[in-house]
Q: What sequence folds into this?
């Protein structure tokens, strides 16, 4: 689906956000349809609201005005329980720095969202192992976060975000602290997720990501 489609996968309309105790309005009435089957990079100077936009798209923050739409239906104004349900089933979120639970193995971290989504353990486990393999960290399945590199942890976070096969994947500076090889494999994984028909949105100022994104939205 393209930007002009009446019911695109993920869209915002007249969006603005203001943090409590702040006077600064972010996004200034942003209207945008995020392309399906493509990687959109959200860029702009530091402090412009890239991370905040991802949290609003991820239904973790409610906009001050405007709307977030999934498949043409408004979702930001739903109850906490409904927004959590949308988050659990239709959204994968890759946080900056990929903080993984130090007490869990890589495999346990990767499959955890599936258990919340009600996927049986055996199904979740095989899907997690397959994703970890695709991301080149399958051999690390039994390791704990202290035993893997930052780039590997970021790939585990992507496997986790893709586990329930969500139509929308949001990633906050996923290559921010990675060397070039790791940045390349993280971006390739997100590109494959998009090519499989998902809407992938990456908040970034990394020139490498900007160069390879299908679309760029500048805040
Ligand atoms: P970016 O990702 O583009 O660097 P952010 O979304 O992190 O921008 O922040 C946008 C603006 O909101 C900045 O001015 C930042 O200082 C402010 N901000 C971020 N988080 C909070 C918060 N929890 N409370 C108040 N202001 C915040």
A:
């Amino acid at each position: 689906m393209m930007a002009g489609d009446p019911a695109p996968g993920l869209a915002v309309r007249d969006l603005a956000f203001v943090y409590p105790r702040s006077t600064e309005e972010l996004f200034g009435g942003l209207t945008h349809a995020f392309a399906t089957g493509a990687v959109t990079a959200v860029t702009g100077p530091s402090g412009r609201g890239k991370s905040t936009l991802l949290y609003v798209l991820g239904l973790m923050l409610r906009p001050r005005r405007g709307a977030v739409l999934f498949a043409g239906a408004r979702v930001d104004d739903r109850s906490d329980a409904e927004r959590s349900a949308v988050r659990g089933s239709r959204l994968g979120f890759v946080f900056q720095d990929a903080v993984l639970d130090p007490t869990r193995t890589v495999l346990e971290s990767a499959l955890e969202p599936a258990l919340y989504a009600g996927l049986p353990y055996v199904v979740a486990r095989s899907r997690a192992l397959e994703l970890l393999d695709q991301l080149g960290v399958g051999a690390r399945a039994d390791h704990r976060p202290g035993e893997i590199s930052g780039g590997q942890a970021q790939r585990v976070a992507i496997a986790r975000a893709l586990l329930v096969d969500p139509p929308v994947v949001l990633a906050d500076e996923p290559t921010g602290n990675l060397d070039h090889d790791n940045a390349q494999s993280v971006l390739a994984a997100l590109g494959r997720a998009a090519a499989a028909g998902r809407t992938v949105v990456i908040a970034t100022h990394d020139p490498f990501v900007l160069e390879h994104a299908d679309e760029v939205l500048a805040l």
Observations:
- The chain has a mean pLDDT of 91.
- Residues 167 and 198 are 5 Å apart (CA to CA).
- The helical segments are 50-57, 80-90, 106-116, 121-134, 150-162, 180-195, 207-212.
